[in-house]
Write a structure and sequence with these properties.
Layout lengths: L4 E5 L9 E5 L3 E3 L5 E3 L3 E4 H13 L1 H20 L5 H23 L7 H29 L9
Length: 151
């Protein structure tokens, strides 16, 4: 059974009118013959966007985590070990910290699904990638020999 995304409206009441994506349950047969089922993941797109905006506009978080992540990715690009999927996983740690600070500033938002955190990380990815490219260019100007990968 393959995973499919569909759009549904949230029932009237709390969060009425918000669009969310629901990932259907997927069965995975592992190497030992066991069947594992993934749970349904609900993506709260407005919250994911709000988290991304909050993270980008928080000066302390930008200085303490956002910029160092971009510099780390620039080093990985220079060494040819950069992987986009792993980069997004790394950005999820930034989203976790941003969510913690968001809850502290604006109050509890309830439990946030992993899918929402990943959606927020994917929204932050282009900005971090752009900053990483800038740092890579800066590194290559200072030490041209350290930039062996030209992907």
């Amino acid at each position: 059974m393959q995973s499919k995304d569909r759009q549904d409206s949230v029932p009237k009441g709390e969060g009425a009118g918000l669009q969310v994506h629901i990932q259907e349950v997927q069965e995975i047969v592992e190497g030992n013959g066991m069947v594992r089922r993934k749970r349904e993941q609900v993506i709260d797109e407005p919250l994911a966007r709000e988290l991304a905006i909050t993270i980008e506009n928080d000066g302390n978080l930008y200085r303490q985590m956002y910029e160092p992540i971009a510099k780390n990715y620039a080093r990985k690009m220079a060494k040819c070990t950069y992987d986009k999927d792993k980069a997004i996983k790394g950005i999820v740690n930034l989203v976790d910290e941003g969510l913690r600070r968001y809850k502290k500033d604006f109050g509890d938002v309830g439990r946030v699904s992993t899918a929402t955190k990943v959606a927020s990380a994917k929204e932050l990815y282009p900005g971090i990638k752009e900053l990483a490219d800038f740092h890579l260019k800066e590194m290559c100007e200072k030490k041209p020999k350290s930039c062996g990968c030209k992907k």
